[in-house]
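Two proteins follow. First one:
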Amino acid sequence: MKKAQVVFIPFPGMSHLVSTLEFAKLLINRNNRLRITVLVMKFPHTTDTDVYTKSLPISDSLQVINLPECSLPPNTDRASAMTTLVESQKPHVKQAVSNLTAEEEQHGPLAAFIVDMFCTTMIDVAKEFSVPGLMFFTSGVASLGLILHLHTLLEQDNFDVTQLQQKNELAVPSFANMVPVNTLPSFILHKEWESFFKSYGGGLKKPDGIIVNSFEELESHAVQSFFSHTDLAALPIYPVGPLLNPEPKTKSSVDSDDIIKWLDDQPPSSVVFLCFGTRGSFYENQIQEIAHAIENSGVRFIWSLRKPSPKGTMPAPSDYPLSELVSLLPEGFLDCTTEIGKVVGWTSQAQILAHRAIGGFVSHCGWNSILESMYFGVPIAAWPLFAEQQTNAFELVCELKLGVEIALDYRVGFNGEHNYVVTAEKIERGIKSVLDKDGAVRKNVKEMSKKSKKTLLKDGSSYIYLGNLIDYIMNQV
């Protein structure tokens, strides 16, 4: 029985790391001839990934190696920091992989690299070791198709961002509907990000195949576009999701037991959960509008409210001390809502979404959050913030009919600036709509929940794609 080694290089953000490691575990559970080594890099002065990686069940089939920490030049912007970090780690990756090849007799030869969507430059290192470089794309198939299509426009047709901004909507092969330009990712719309996008989009065309954390039953049109459209058909894709960790062990300052006990006392599908991801936060004027919407709606709620990091810095948002929370929220808000809801800090999103009392989810539409929400059968009220979240929100609401809209074109800049304040009336309308027990969206989500649980079982589409991927890897040996 031949064995094979695979090297994983995830991007150092929690949302990327969790889904990548869930995929690594899925691979070795499916085929015990694989040995996976995960090379973990970190941004300087960050610790949020440590707790998670230390909680992993390390075995002979899965090992985690923390690469040496690299420093970044002071005042580095986010795009440059991402590029600089990955480039600076190349020598460490080469050394770590050279060490692995010395274990070939015990664990088998090196068969492939699987690199994150933001680490495609590492495919050059895979080529140096004469193995395929596969990419793990942590967002959806439609979003992948959009980026590849727009990169082709920019490269081949002398199209530029300014021309893009003059359009209202765009035809994209991976979307059945025209895509409004104001829902395109931020790094496509801004001229100062054009060089980053050209490099990033070009990197997505380098791998020998693309593994996507999605499933064909969810994104059937997008998946089929990769087989039927000339620009996309050259890239083999493997939609093997949904890759979820229902209870990831991350640092939390919230006593989740208290939240679960409170939820246990609430009626089924009666509570709205407001949570905006590991990097989601708002400033005071927007927080006031959310609070007024919650109070006016009178619905039961759990609101994960987080403090923005200082402008221009890399750390993720933090939790508010109680004294700050009292002065930040409208006067009397905490007192008058004490019976119907809780304002909390960071908490276990999957654990809450899985609870029978949760009836709706006000979300930033990060892809992991969408997958979790679909898996647990909870409709989303879409309120994207940055990155590709606006595109995800448009797909969810307009393309798939699996969510309702709060503000599809809302956008937070990389220094915390936002394009407008969403009114309490608009938020309240979204909250009430997502809790509608008889609505078509809720019915659609319940059906998709069943499909998401079947797709990784034998004969499901993700099960079949995963088998094809393992065959490809083993054939390299």
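Second one, unrelated to the first:
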Amino acid sequence: MEAVHECIERTVANLRQLDIDPAALVATGISNQRETTIVWDKLTGKPLYNAIVWLDVRNTDTVDRMVARTRNKSADYWKPVCGLPISTYFSACKLRWIMDNVPRVRRAMNQGRCLFGTVDTWIIWNLTGGVNGGLHITDVTNASRTMLMNIKTREWDPTLCSFFGIPQNILPEIRSSAEIYGHITSGALLGLPISGCLGDQQAALVGQMCFEQGQAKNTYGTGCFLLYNTGTLIVQSSHGLLTTVGYQLGKKAPVIYALEGSIAIAGVAMSVICGITEETSKENIVKAALEAVCFQTRDILEAMNKDCGIPLTRLLVDGGMTVNKYVMQTQADLCGIPVVRPVMTETTALGAAMAAGCADGVKVWDIHNIHAVPNDTFHPSITEDGNYPATKDVRYAAWKMAIERSLGWDLKTIPNDSLLSDISNQIISAIPGGFFILSSVALLHIAKKLKCR
């Protein structure tokens, strides 16, 4: 929250330096890191425990326990209800872990003092008054990432809450992504309405103006997140994708759904690398890491095409990695479709602003009449007519083969008896070759001695 307040103050100061009157601002929108779980005391306003962020896997045992409780012992058991598998990733298992491991959280729940929220909820509660009447709300996109919301009704599901043992009275009210929720109660933006709220990846979907069914965007950051607009249709993936809410731009507006595929490691992809030889240079390593993101993006697109049956005709991209032209051209080459990169790559912030601006009571933007931002388009350079030495499909097949060969390489994951057996077999299989080498060396040594005589 200190960072949020500092951001607001600096933004207002920058506007004044540009001779823009902050009074001209009509609304603000919020975009946030999804799934991150926060619990706090509504009477003191203080967090009851550190936030557990989206990548944190301390709740692995909790996930295993929850999967074991399902009727068919499947992580996908609740996907038809919430669109998500039971995973360390989503808020429900993070919250369950906190409840099981932090006594003061349990006490606060028993006393009716505890509130739960993702980052958007925490920010809105604080900006609209906190302990003095702060609004305890979330939007439908963030709620869809908790594993507690019914994907069809867009309400907290009593069966899911009961399964995870989470009391519904700690959950925020679910609202649309574009409406006036309340007003900022202090600071440089005092009185300004908050009228937009979207999880970061959904905000990028809006910022890229993917308003038509079959459009998709990919955000390249710490992780890589590809969202594919499925319109008002809820598509349950049979190829490992997530079903999520894309956006709802108004109380009475239709809810737009999306399929999502993610690459957990993209911008930080240097931590596991296979296939290094004595000829490998640092440039090769960088290139391999960048290309891995492009190959995995094609993996996701292939899955989406199978689930939806509508091949993507172009891919809209944003995020920090998109500044790299090599990555963008490689992505176009491997997917065989144009990759469109906006000149202004911070489309997540743009999406939050668009949601805020189109809300009833604000209406400074017509969401269906916004000019697309200028962009660069990378067209595929690899053709299927043999003009390039390796076609996209040949390279993709080689990638898939490399993945197959890399599975199970970590010795720490192999049982000791299996490891010993494998080592024994390798030693035995190496004996003939070793004997040949030793005998060859001995014969050369004898021949040298004889020559000297």
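SUMMARY FIELD: The first strand starts at residue 28 and ends at 32. DSSP finds 14 helices and 14 strands in the chain.
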